[in-house]
Amino acid sequence: MVDVTKGRLDIARTRAALTLSEASYPPVQYMPPQDIDMSLLERPQYTTYCPYKGEANYYGIPALGEPGLNSVWNYETPFEAVGEIAGYLASHPDRVAIELAD
């Protein structure tokens, strides 16, 4: 199970996270949107491009203030090689704590 919390704000809880590892980067947990409290997220018009996954769309967590800006992202239509993460959301581990539990 993955719990995503910041202080006392519970953002997500899932048993369906996907772990994506690439190159020398630490593994990233991607969570299905139905397991995330989407009412806590705000979607700005900010995107980035990854040559391995495609275009990332970002979300902010307004309750966190500045650390919450663009702290969550997803790939709505990722490249076929990582197609299983389509629609799943991930977060910056240095801004939002992710705890793995049984």
Give an overview of the whole structure:
The chain has one domain (2-100): Domain of unknown function (DUF427) (Metal Binding Protein, Guanine Nucleotide Exchange Factor, Chain A). The model has no long low-confidence stretch (mean pLDDT 85). A hairpin with a 3-residue loop joins β5 (47-50) and β6 (54-59). With 102 residues, the chain is mostly beta strands. It has strands at 2-6, 9-14, 18-20, 28-30, 47-50, 54-59, 72-74, 89-91, 97-100.
Structural class: mainly beta
CATH class wording: Mainly Beta
Strand order of the largest sheet: 5-6-7-8
Q: Based on Cα principal axes, name the global outline.
A: globular
Low-confidence stretches: none
- Number of H/I helices: 0
Order of helix and strand elements from N to C terminus: EEEEEEEEE
Q: Please name the CATH topology.
A: Metal Binding Protein, Guanine Nucleotide Exchange Factor, Chain A
**CATH 4th-level superfamily:** Domain of unknown function (DUF427)
Percentage of residues in strands: 35-45%
| Helix coverage percent | under 10%
Sheet bearing the most strands, described? 4 strands, antiparallel
Distance between the termini: 6 Å
Radius of gyration, taken over Cα atoms and rounded to an integer in Å: 13 Å
CATH-level-2 architecture: Beta Complex
The tally of structural domains comes to 1
What's the overall average pLDDT, rounded?
85
